Fold each of these.
Amino acid sequence: MTKIEQLEILKQEVLSCQKCKLHQTRTKVVFGEGNPDGGVLLIGEGPGADEDKTGRPFVGRSGQLLDKILDAAGFNRKDHVFIANIVKCRPPNNREPEKEEREACLPYLHKQIEIINPKIIVLLGATALKLIDPSMKLREAKGQWMIWKNKIVLTTYHPSALLRNPNLKKEAWEHFKKLFYKYREIINPEIKSEHIK
Ligand code: SF4
């Protein structure tokens, strides 16, 4: 079975999930999307209002900014990355997902990681960082390459943090440059970016 077929089977299970209370307030489950063979898995926190309406990850203002940064660094969803979240249903009023909600939903993300088997994982923000170490602070992890379950992991800001504080964009760009160099080194030496030499 291909990765796409395996992900489709998992998606059908997740679409009807009621394992935590977020199912009561969601409009659509946001499973994730992108190229499972691209080599990079981006992990965010959870769906917002636009994502809840459309069932697609990172399509609101944060998502548009993420796409812009990815594009500047030579990446896109169709070819290089798969995007998923810690929780698949929107927490009301965009609050942080609670521990019980994260724990209920995490088996789906672990299964996605197992199927996709990415070479590089990028954690977007503090909630995503909890996946690998609940005690680690974003300020300690950001921009650092770490190893988790034999995967190379890079942590950066969630794009919503960049919208709230544009001063962080410069630092985030340095993180995406690191991603570009690592991708070129271990996945595809042919990747090109107009903005990175
Ligand atoms: S957030 Fe995850 S565990 Fe909770 S209902 Fe949605 S899919 Fe199920």
Amino acid sequence: MKKNNLPLHAQDDTIAAVSTPIGEGGISIVRLSGAESLAIAERIFVSSEGRKLSGFATHTVHYGKIKDPKAAEIIDEVLVTVMRAPRSYTREDVIEINCHGGIQSAKRTLGLVLKSGARAAEPGEFTKRAFLNGRIDLAQAEAIIDVIRAKTEGSLKVAMNQLEGELSRRINEIRDKILDIASEVEASVDFPEESPDIPEEADKALSGIDGVVADIERLISTYEGGSVMREGVLAILCGKPNVGKSSLMNLLLKRDRVIVSAIPGTTRDAVEEMINLGGIPVRLVDTAGISDTKDALEREGIARSRTYLAMADIAIVVLDHSSGIDGKDMAIIEMVKDKKKVVVVNKSDLPGRIKIKDAERLSKGGKVVEISVKKRENIEALEKEMADVIWSGRFAQGESAVMSNARHKELLDKALANMLSVKKALRAGEPPEILAIDLKDAASSLGLITGKTISDDILDRIFGRFCIGK
Ligand SMILES: Nc1nc2c(ncn2[C@@H]2O[C@H](COP(=O)(O)OP(=O)(O)OP(=O)(O)O)[C@@H](O)[C@H]2O)c(=O)[nH]1
Ligand SMILES: [Mg+2]
């Protein structure tokens, strides 16, 4: 473990990368960060005003050309932004060169920058510097990946809450409380003769510990909802062949993604697509209709349906109004009996054989929605029902910070276990030294969330998931 005020890596070099996606576009940005940024850019930039980059004020933009100093060849016409330390993304001197979009210009400009003294940045290295230079903490740095990868407006909101530092503030508050308790406990180790009234001390410590346990539990309770927004949920369309699963998939996706036909056994492979269900990212999977067919291909498809069903967060069981409920439907419902589910009675436009009551009995009290994909009837009600089922039991009350990251959850679980063990030890009259161990462990787990305590491998794991140029 190291304290984060000590840089883990030499940061005295200047790094550079193309920070926009590689491909054709309006602009491509080559970004530099480090003490030599201005000097390096100056070697290849010819300002239209005939002035040197190093003379420009911070946060100004300048028009000019990128020129290969050796070949005297003009590479591109560009805009260069100067951002001097510490008011920049990394807190170092940053230069951003806006090239014309496309691969060649940005690539050649980057090549010149590297030849002129910069080093190619590793994935996430700009953000890592922002962290190592103390502009953001570790939880905020992780939120930046979440912002980039946000799948829906809901995911973005959770990521921004974390980037704004809401989670870090709560974590630091709780950590401070633990450190306070630890120092009180330690004081009673150092000066036992000065605190003869142990029971009163213990009482005070106990109520402090209870407060911390409640704080941690409240934060953990936000994880279910937070992780739904961050990771999305897996929703599986399942049912007998020909009930209209693929038709419903296309309708929910709002495009013709999968083949629909009147022939039972049309879908052979599981097909997964992302939909935005009122802000919730949902991975929706169309599966092969489940039957006892002899067809080898169809059987392989059905095996995949079962695999997906086992992983499902929510099952959408589709029934066919025109064909009624039979033993096959019952067998499918049995397969998903422990899952959150919505039962859909499709083809309500056809003369029907299914009574809603029967479908409800089949689903054992689960919600039943009657729809017609063909007539596009009641689809909004189905979407609302799916969202309600996904959310059920996941709402956390009275906490403004939201936790969405599995790494944070694991560390909070550890801290909680430590605090519960402190409580037990205190009640059992264990000596303060024993209590102090768990208290320190709890504080250090929380420190690992925000990066107050860090290790190289954690940093590599976190920043290695970024793209190059971020
Ligand atoms: N009348 C009516 N027909 C529908 C409706 N929804 C789907 N169908 C028809 O039902 C047939 C089967 O639809 P699919 O979506 O291919 O059914 P599936 O459940 O994916 O079938 P498999 O892939 O074989 O398991 C097609 O002919 C659809 O046009 C509906 O709401 N009303
Ligand atoms: Mg199908």
